[in-house]
Design brief:
Layout (H helix, E strand, L loop, with lengths): L7 H18 L10 E9 L6 H15 L4 E4 L14 E8 L1 H15 L19 E5 L19 E7 L4 H11 L7 H14 L1
Antiparallel strand pairs: 1-3, 1-5, 2-3, 4-5
Helix pairs in contact: 1-4
Length: about 200
């Protein structure tokens, strides 16, 4: 009988992060601990893009996400943007379950560290414990064959958690390995602590 594979990051969450959050946040039981709900990836598509460009973007987003993206169509025509009703303006994918955990692990362990002069990501949340990260160049993902990329595209990554507050969401993602950039206040506090210790 074959046992089901559990994604590495999910296993780490269940075995280490849940007990750590129960202890640090004084939750009454493990079911109060916030977790990941879904991860959405989306990218915009130029209104003048031809069918080949749209197919390339679909192929690349599918390679990154591991599932076929849905094309977003414009709901109304806007002449200033040369946009017709029903024209393809973007592509998006929503990941849940094991696919979500696998993607987040690849993002944290493989993709983000390959960014040149990387100093961490911003730590601003949406007020409800959810986090959005913008990637300006999607070729940081190893699934992308750079030689096949005709036009670089950006990517929005929206991580939805079951956290009630931004602090809970931030602590959850930090424990999962999200490399948040240190704020000026944190740097100043560390410098003050060092000078006091000396």
């Amino acid at each position: 009988m074959s046992t089901k594979r559990v994604p590495f990051l999910k296993q780490q969450y269940l075995e280490q992060i849940v007990p750590a959050l129960v202890k640090s946040r004084s939750y009454k039981n493990k079911y109060e601990v916030p977790g990941l709900v879904k991860i959405s990836l989306n990218t915009g598509i130029d209104a003048e893009a031809d069918k080949n460009q749209i197919a390339d973007i679909q192929r690349d987003l599918a390679a990154i996400a591991g599932q076929k993206p849905v094309l977003a169509k414009s709901k109304k025509a806007i002449s200033n943007f040369k946009l017709r009703q029903g024209q393809t303006v973007g592509a998006y994918v929503t990941l849940r379950g094991d696919a979500m955990w696998d993607f987040l692990y690849r993002l944290l362990a493989v993709a983000l560290p390959t960014i040149r002069d990387f100093r961490g990501v911003h730590s601003k949340f949406d007020g409800q414990g959810n986090y959005t990260l913008g990637i300006s160049d999607f070729t940081i993902f190893p699934e992308i064959v750079v030689e096949n990329v005709k036009k670089s595209m950006g990517l929005d990554i929206n991580i939805v958690t079951s956290a009630q507050t931004d602090d809970e969401g931030r602590e959850l993602l930090k424990l999962l390995g999200m490399p948040f950039r240190r704020t000026d206040a944190q740097v100043a506090a560390d410098a003050a602590a060092k000078s006091n210790a000396a």
